[in-house]
Amino acid sequence: MIRILETKQVGRLLARKAARLVSPRSLHLVDGAPVSAPQLRPTARYPTCRAPTQRNGASQGTSDTAPYVRRIAMRFPIALILMILSLFTETARGTPEQDFWNWFEKNEAALFDFEKDEEAVFDRLTTAMHRVHPNITFEFGPKHGDQREFVISADGIKEAFPKVISLHAAAPKLPRWTFIRFRPRREPMDITYNGVSARAREIQFSLEADGEKAGITLFIPGHSAENHKTMTGIAFLMLDQALGEFDVETKVGLIEVASPDTSRSTKKPLKELPKAFDDFTFNAKP
User: Fold this and answer.
1) Which of 44, 107, 236, 276 could bond to 23 as cystine, CB 3.0-4.6 Å?
2) Does residue 84 lie in a domain region?
3) What does each C-alpha distance from 221 to 146, 228, 233, 259, 272 come to in angstroms?
4) Same domain, 162 and 221
């Protein structure tokens, strides 16, 4: 897949998690409650109903009981009507997820051939997705005949994960599309960001325990104090490719970036990270 970084969105997320350093995570691939019934409880005007008293051998309520009973009789049908109308309104309006997919189906042709007007299509798509959640973003896969992948991503923001899951669950079955939740694992590709380039085949890693998670250090040639922030962004993007968005956010702890010359720890090529990571997390299970 071809990767194009959207720098305006990358910058928005550079200070995302201080404990995890910086993460430029936005990247595109060419890229009621129903109205409840009124609570029928006594008011100052209508005290609690009292048990009926006996007068001349007949059961008879107190004088303040009748108004309260009439109040219930009048208010309950109104409440029921409001509840029914609310349900019909919610059904007609739909959930944000349903609204998004309705929009997607209406614009399916333009989305499938987004290259014809990429900027306009991406702007409209971003607006539609942000109605579901402001941190949800997307990736397109390349065309394979009449097929295309569409990735729904939380943009590395864990708080948006539930919305990614619910949006994916509501996806319709469309013949030309495969819908994927979270950025999946892929073979890491070379990345250029902020004028700094990194070749995936030259990057190495070390892996160690960080509590119940995996701590990862990426050794990137050319890393220095001056370009540390940019290199950290590249490191997060490389990890998203190697391990997938979900695992990076839920199973990885501390992420560090260093020059290969600054450490004597055992280093392995980045291409071996997925297997080493899976073995590590499997063995770390209690």
Assistant:
1) 236
2) no
3) 40, 12, 14, 6, 18
4) no
Which residues span the domain enclosing 209? 191-283
DSSP string, 179-211: EEESPPP-----EEETTEEE-GGG-EEEEEEET
- Please enumerate in sequence order all residues whose Cβ is within 8 A of that of 230, keeping only pairs 6 or more positions apart, or say none: 193, 194, 195, 196
Last residue of some domain: 149, 181, 213?
Answer: 181
Number of domains in the chain: 2
Quick check: pTM over 0.90?
A: no
In the block, which residue shows the tokens 């950290």? 232
Digit-by-digit pLDDT tens for the chain (286 residues) are 334 444 434 444 443 433 344 333 333 333 332 222 223 222 222 232 333 334 444 444 444 444 433 443 345 455 555 565 555 544 446 899 999 999 999 999 999 999 999 999 999 999 999 999 999 999 999 999 999 999 999 988 999 999 999 999 999 999 999 999 999 999 999 999 999 999 999 999 999 999 999 999 999 999 999 999 999 999 999 999 999 999 999 999 999 999 998 877 789 999 999 999 999 988 766 5
